[in-house]
Write a structure and sequence with these properties.
The complex is a heterodimer. Chain A is an alpha+beta fold. Chain A has 13 helices and 13 strands. In chain A, the strands form two sheets. In chain A, strands 4-5-10-7-9-8 form a six-stranded mixed β-barrel. In chain A, strands 2-11 form a two-stranded antiparallel sheet. Chain B is of the alpha/beta class. Chain B has one domain (2-223): P-loop containing nucleotide triphosphate hydrolases (Rossmann fold, 3-Layer(aba) Sandwich). In chain B, the strands form two sheets. Chain B has a six-stranded mixed β-sheet with strand order 6-7-8-3-9-10, with helices on both faces. The chains are: A alpha+beta, B alpha/beta. Chain A: One of its GO terms (cellular component) is plasma membrane.
C-alpha cells in the first residue's frame, strides 16, 4: 500500500480519465497559470540579461572623476578657480584610499568632449584624442575589431601608436583599406595605427570617432606634463563606491584648498548607482512575476479543488462502499490528494512545455538582435524547482478541501442513497 | 459470536428525538443463519448498521467474537469492519469501473495483501460462486444475479467472522433470488455465520432462525425449519 502501489495509481487515473473533457478544462487554469508564471520569469530574465549586455564591459563598481572650477571662495582663493589633477593625485589616492583597486588616469586634447584635427592623406577627421593607460580597458572595455589595444610596452617606451574607432577609420581610410601600420597625423605629430575598436553596446563616452594613444606618448607629444584630465577608478568589489568617492573627494579637496562644501569643483559619476537601480528594477519585476504567478496558480488550483469536490459528490456511494469494506479515512484522503497533485502536476507540465516553447520563440524573434534589451529569456533551474514546489504545495493544501469532504461521508448515508 | 445486551439507539433531528432501538437483547452463535424481519421503521436497518459498525450505539453492549465494540474511531471501525465483517447490499454496490476480480479483491487491498495474491484469492472466491469465466468482466457486463454473486464473493474475500446481508434479494427476480439464497445457504453450510435482513417471508424461511423487530423491540425470536432452495437446473 505504498505510494508506488500500482492500484493506488490506477484508481487515481481511472477517476481522472472518466471524464476527460472535464478533467482537461479543469486543468486549463493551472496550465495558464504556469504559462504566465514561466513567461513572466523568463521575460524578466531576458530583460535582465539584455541590460547586462548593455553594460557588458563596464565594471559595475567603478566611477569617473574629473575636475571643474571651484564655486566657493576658500582660504583666500577666489571662486571660479580651475583645478587640474596630476599624476601625483593618482599615487596619493592609491596610498590613502584602501577601497580603490585600480586607477586609470586619462588626458585628452582640448576640453572634455573637444576634438583635435586628425589628418591622413588629405582626409581629416575631428576626433576626440585621449591619452590612456591599458588599465582603462578594465573599467570600460572596448571591442577590438582589428589589431590590439594599447599595452604596457607602449606606455614604457612611449610608442607613437594609436587605436582608432570605426567612425574615425571611416573618415580617414577608404572602405576595406588596411589601417594597421598606417600613419595618421594628430596635431602635427604622426602616430601609427595598431588597432581599431568598436563600442561595446555599453555605456560609452568616447563614441566611435575617438583615438587612443598611450598616456606617456601623449605627455611627450603634446607637452601635457603631469596634468591629467580625469580618472577612471575601479573600487574593490566588496566595498561601496560611494564611500570611496567621498574619501577621495575629501582628500583632494584638502590638497587643492577647496571648500569642503564645494560640490562643483570636482565632478564624478558613480556607475554602481545605475547598476543598483537596474538590479532593483529587475528584482521588483521578478517579485511581481512571482506574485502574479502565485495568485494565478492559486486560482487554477482552486478550480481543480472545485472539480474534485464535484467528483467526491458523484462518488459518494463508491466512497461509502470503500469505507464499509475497510478503507480508513487516511486511505480515502490520500487518494483525493493524489488526484489533486496528479491533475495539477500534469497541467503544470503542459504549461511548462508551452511556456518554454514560447520563450524559445521570443528568443528567436527578439533575442538575437541588438535592437531590444532582451537576451536569452530562460528560467533557471531554481526558479523551475520553486515553481513546481509551489504548485505541488498548493495542490496538496487545496486538495485537502475535497479530501476532508470525502472523509466526512458517512458510510451509512452513502449506502442509503439509492 | 454476536452478543447484544440492552441496546438503545436514538436519532436527534433538531429538537425532535427518535428512539429507534429500545432495548435489544440478542445473541448469535457461530454457524447460525439468522433472518431479521420487520416492516420499514421497525429499526432493522439501524440494528444492522450498528452490527456492521457503520453506526455507534447509544447504550448497551455489543460484543463481536469476544471483542467489545464501542466508541470506535473511524480508522479502528474501518479496520474491524475489514477484519470481522462481510457486507452484502441490496443494490450490490460494486465499483463500476473495476472488473469482477478487482471488486472482490478490494477488501484484501485494504488489508495490504499484494496484488498477485489478491488476484489469486479473488479468482478462487469468484470460482466458488460460479463466476469463474467472468473474472475480468465489468459489473455493467453482468446480470443482476451475477452482480450479487460478485458482491457475495467480495464479502467472503476477507474471510470475515460474520456476513451481513441487507435485503440481498431486494433487487432481484424470484429465480435469481433463489440462486442467491442457495449460495448463502451453501456458505452457511460451510460454517459461516450470516445475518440476513429481509422483509420477504419466503426468504426469511430459507434461514434457520427468524428475529422479528417491531417498533424498536424484538417481538419474536424463533428457530424455524430451514427451507432448502430447490436447486435449479443451470
Amino acid at each position: 500500500m505504498g505510494i508506488f502501489d500500482r492500484d493506488l495509481w490506477s484508481e487515481v487515473f481511472s477517476t481522472l480519465t472518466k471524464n476527460m473533457l472535464r478533467t482537461f478544462l479543469t486543468t486549463l487554469g493551472v496550465i495558464f497559470a504556469i504559462v504566465i508564471l514561466i513567461l513572466l520569469l523568463g521575460g524578466t530574465n531576458g530583460m535582465s540579461n539584455g541590460f547586462n549586455r548593455i553594460f557588458a564591459g563596464t565594471a559595475t563598481n567603478s566611477m569617473f572623476m574629473w575636475t571643474q572650477t571651484t564655486s566657493m571662495a576658500y582660504k583666500g582663493f577666489e571662486r571660479g578657480r580651475p583645478i587640474d589633477f596630476t599624476l601625483e593625485d593618482v599615487d596619493l589616492i592609491k596610498q590613502q584610499v584602501s577601497e580603490v583597486d585600480i586607477i586609470a588616469p586619462r588626458i585628452q586634447l582640448g576640453d572634455f568632449g573637444g576634438t583635435a584635427t586628425v589628418i591622413r592623406n588629405g582626409r581629416t577627421s575631428g576626433s576626440g584624442v585621449y591619452g590612456d593607460y591599458p588599465s582603462i580597458d578594465l573599467v570600460s572595455k572596448k571591442r577590438i575589431v582589428e589589431g590590439r589595444f594599447i599595452n604596457q610596452n607602449d606606455i614604457e617606451d612611449s610608442k607613437k601608436v594609436c587605436v582608432i574607432g570605426v567612425d574615425a577609420y571611416k573618415l580617414l581610410f577608404d572602405k576595406g583599406e588596411n589601417a594597421i601600420g598606417k600613419s595618421i597625423k594628430i596635431n602635427g605629430i604622426y602616430f601609427s595605427v595598431v588597432g581599431i575598436y568598436k563600442k561595446n553596446d555599453n555605456i560609452n563616452f568616447e563614441g566611435e570617432n575617438a583615438i587612443f594613444v598611450p598616456f606617456t606618448t601623449f605627455q611627450n607629444a603634446f607637452n601635457s606634463g603631469n596634468k591629467i584630465g580625469w580618472m577612471a577608478i575601479l573600487v574593490d568589489p566588496d566595498k561601496e563606491v560611494a564611500v570611496a568617492e567621498k574619501k577621495i573627494k575629501t582628500l583632494l579637496k584638502r590638497k587643492y584648498n577647496i571648500h569642503p562644501d564645494d560640490i562643483r569643483a570636482i565632478g564624478s559619476f558613480d556607475f554602481s548607482e545605475i547598476f543598483k537601480g537596474i538590479s532593483a528594477f529587475t528584482l521588483v519585476l521578478q517579485g511581481f512575476s512571482f506574485f502574479v504567478g502565485t495568485f494565478t496558480l492559486l486560482a487554477g488550483v482552486i478550480a481543480v479543488s472545485n472539480i474534485l469536490l464535484i467528483t467526491v459528490k458523484e462518488r459518494t456511494n463508491e466512497i461509502g462502499v470503500r469505507r464499509a469494506l475497510g478503507a480508513t479515512p487516511k486511505i480515502i484522503k490520500r487518494q483525493i490528494i493524489l488526484e489533486s497533485i496528479v491533475l495539477t502536476t500534469f497541467a503544470g507540465l503542459i504549461g511548462f512545455v508551452i511556456s518554454v516553447a514560447a520563450l524559445h520563440f521570443l528568443d528567436y524573434k527578439f533575442g538575437h538582435t541588438d535592437e531590444y534589451p532582451f537576451v536569452n529569456p530562460t528560467v533557471s533551474i531554481p526558479q523551475i524547482l520553486f515553481s513546481f514546489i509551489l504548485m505541488i504545495g498548493l495542490s496538496v493544501l487545496i486538495g485537502l478541501i475535497p479530501a476532508n469532504r470525502a472523509v466526512k461521508i458517512k458510510p451509512i448515508e452513502a449506502l442509503r442513497e439509492e | 459470536m454476536i452478543e447484544i445486551k440492552d441496546l438503545h439507539k436514538s436519532y436527534h433531528m433538531g429538537s425532535n428525538s427518535l428512539h429507534v432501538l429500545k432495548g435489544i437483547n440478542f445473541s448469535v452463535k457461530e454457524g447460525e443463519l439468522v433472518a431479521i424481519m420487520g416492516s420499514s421503521g421497525s429499526g432493522k436497518s439501524t440494528l444492522l448498521n450498528i452490527l456492521g459498525m457503520l453506526d455507534n450505539l447509544d447504550e448497551g453492549e455489543y460484543l463481536l467474537d469476544g471483542v467489545t465494540i464501542k466508541n470506535l474511531n473511524e480508522t479502528k471501525a474501518a479496520n474491524y469492519r475489514n477484519k470481522f465483517l462481510g457486507f452484502i447490499f441490496q443494490s450490490f454496490n460494486l465499483i463500476n469501473y473495476k472488473s469482477a476480480w478487482e471488486n472482490v479483491a478490494l477488501p484484501l487491498y485494504y488489508q495490504g495483501v499484494n496484488r498477485k495474491l489478491r488476484k489469486e484469492r479473488a479468482i478462487k472466491h469468484l470460482e466458488s460462486v460460479g463466476l469463474g469465466p467472468w473474472v475480468d468482466h465489468l459489473p455493467s457486463e453482468l446480470s443482476g444475479g451475477q452482480k450479487q454473486r460478485v458482491a457475495i464473493a467480495r464479502a467472503l474475500a476477507a474471510e470475515p467472522k460474520v456476513m451481513l446481508a441487507d435485503e440481498p434479494t431486494g433487487a432481484l427476480d424470484s429465480k435469481t433470488s433463489h440462486e442467491v439464497m442457495d449460495l448463502i445457504q451453501k456458505i452457511n453450510d460451510e460454517g459461516k455465520t450470516i445475518l440476513v435482513v429481509t422483509h420477504e417471508d419466503d426468504i426469511a424461511h430459507m434461514c434457520k432462525r427468524i428475529v422479528h423487530l417491531k417498533d424498536g423491540v424484538i417481538v419474536e425470536d424463533k428457530v424455524v425449519d430451514q427451507v432448502r432452495v430447490t436447486p435449479y437446473v443451470q
